[in-house]
Specification:
Blueprint (H helix, E strand, L loop, with lengths): L1 H20 L22 H23 L6 H4 L51 H17 L8 E6 L4 E8 L2 E10 L7 E7 L9 H4 L4 E5 L19 H4 L7 H17 L6 E11 L1 H12 L5 E5 L9 H5 L35 H6 L5 E6 L8 H18 L5 E5 L13 H11 L11 E2 L20
Parallel strand pairs: 4-5, 4-6, 6-7, 7-8, 8-9, 9-10
Antiparallel strand pairs: 1-2, 2-3, 3-5
Helix pairs in contact: 1-2, 7-8
């Protein structure tokens, strides 16, 4: 609103100039509000001109009030697209983290706007910083294990063969990571996508190469080994620095994405636009992308492709679906999660959060998630319910265009169908390239699930 008022003041300047030029007597002239009171002792002709201009200014100001300006509404609301720090909630009070025996049963999806101590709900946009920190603390405590803060020292270099080398020092221990960086031609600065496993994740390279977006490969295996079974807990480079084997791989992998961003910040020769970095991956790598986007506020865009159980689905909802699904119990074949998560195998309704709140941790930054109903294991109906719940957080901020979901069948797992390409491109162009006119209000789904058993709360207004 303030931006609109300032623009209206500029419109008033010609009127002010006209009054002075014609030496008209002004009893009161109040610019910057919706009232302009002018007492003019002059000819009827001059009074008519002033009235016409006053009418014009009033109409323009009214349109500004109603939101019909060229300025993007989210921009005028001053809702950030991205932040400059990994975690802005480090100064927030830690939430209570009771043992499972002391946790209440919550059958529906927990209210993402309710303070963890039960003392009411958040009331303003500023409150979200600490509410988001509470959600993150709960997810790390019960599901992931702790994602460590930035290390003592981090050094980065970039070689002529396009390899970025990251040297991380924690105490007396050292870890080296490498990433292939594919830079567009030209001077930049370039937006960038971090692809889990390969430069563009599971997405076609052309989405990025055709738009002069840099691609940064994330070799997650240097952090912890890939594998779905017979993988030892606490294996991998991450655990040479942080030997707590109770911490799951997803916390470690998300930590690795943050270190890539650290390295990019230290390499100005890459000419990466630090305000336009995204992350993407598919399947378990889609989970990595989602956890990374949730726990690092420097990521402007997260694209989690077919992430299934433990990703964009809700543990509670998946538990109610028939068939073979990636329930909380079934998801723990590999040491991806915190060692203590198994205590909720038969008690998912005791979790004080669910994954609509994991997705909401990305807000108000941009998030796009996809599903594939051809694969029963992915539990995409649960993903739909979870997405509808998460969407309420972006709506509360007044930026619903920053969250989208697309659930489309008839294609192989992690092979993006033609139908989804324009949807993904829209998010890339709007949130990595800054094309604000692109339509990203996307909700593609075959489901019409009754949401009333799951969403029993209303979103507050956090637009102020």
């Amino acid at each position: 609103m303030r931006e609109g008022i300032y623009q209206w003041k500029w419109l008033c300047l010609p009127l002010d100039f006209y009054l002075q030029r014609n030496q008209l007597n002004i009893s009161e002239y109040s610019a910057g509000t919706s009232i302009v009171m002018v007492n003019i002792s002059e000819t009827a002709k001059r009074r008519s001109r002033v009235k016409k201009y006053y009418l014009f200014v009033t109409i323009i100001f009214a349109l500004e009030l109603l939101g019909f300006s060229n300025a993007d509404k989210s921009k005028s609301n001053n809702v950030p697209f991205v932040y400059t720090v990994e975690n802005g909630g480090t100064d927030c009070t830690a939430p209570p983290l009771p043992s499972i025996s002391d946790l209440p049963v919550i059958q529906s999806l927990p209210d993402p706007f309710e303070w963890a101590n039960g003392n009411g709900r958040i009331k303003s946009r500023d409150d979200w910083k600490c509410r988001r920190a509470e959600i993150g603390a709960e997810i790390m405590h019960y599901e992931l294990g702790t994602k460590p803060p930035p290390p003592d020292h981090l050094y980065a270099s970039f070689s002529p063969d396009s390899i970025m080398t990251i040297t991380i020092v924690e105490g007396k221990d050292t870890l080296k990571l490498t990433s292939r960086v594919t830079l567009p031609k030209g001077k930049g600065p370039f937006a960038a996508i971090i692809g889990v496993g390969r430069g563009s994740g599971s997405l076609p390279d052309s989405i990025f190469t055709n738009r002069n977006i840099a691609m940064i490969q994330y070799n997650f295996g240097e952090i912890a080994p890939a594998g779905f079974t017979k993988v030892a807990r606490g294996t991998g480079g991450f655990y040479t620095l942080y030997p707590d084997t109770k911490v799951g791989y997803f916390a470690a992998w998300a930590w690795g994405v943050s270190r890539i961003i650290d390295a990019v910040e230290r390499l100005p020769e890459l000419n990466i636009d630090l305000k336009h970095i995204g992350v993407t991956g598919c399947s378990f790598a889609g989970k990595i992308a989602l956890f990374s986007g949730a726990f690092d506020e420097r990521l402007a865009l997260t694209i989690a492709v077919e992430s299934g159980g433990g990703g964009y689905t809700a543990w509670r909802v998946t538990e109610t679906l028939s068939g073979k699904r990636e329930t909380l119990r079934n998801a723990q074949g590999a040491p991806w999660y915190y060692e203590g998560l198994h205590q909720f195998d038969s008690s998912v309704t005791k979790l004080p959060y669910d994954h609509h709140e994991l997705m909401a941790m990305v807000a108000p930054r941009a998030l796009f998630v996809t599903g594939n109903p051809d694969y029963e294991w992915l539990a995409d109906e649960s993903g739909y319910v979870c997405s509808k719940a998460a969407q309420e957080v972006w709506k509360a901020f007044g930026v619903p265009d920053r969250f989208g979901f697309s659930i489309v069948d008839k294609h192989l797992h992690c092979r993006v169908p033609d139908q989804q390409i324009p949807e993904i491109v829209a998010f890339v162009e709007k949130f990595l390239l800054g094309k604000e006119s692109v339509n990203t209000v996307i909700a593609t789904t075959p489901y019409q699930t009754d949401l009333s058993p799951w969403i029993k709360w209303k979103a507050p207004d956090l637009t102020q």
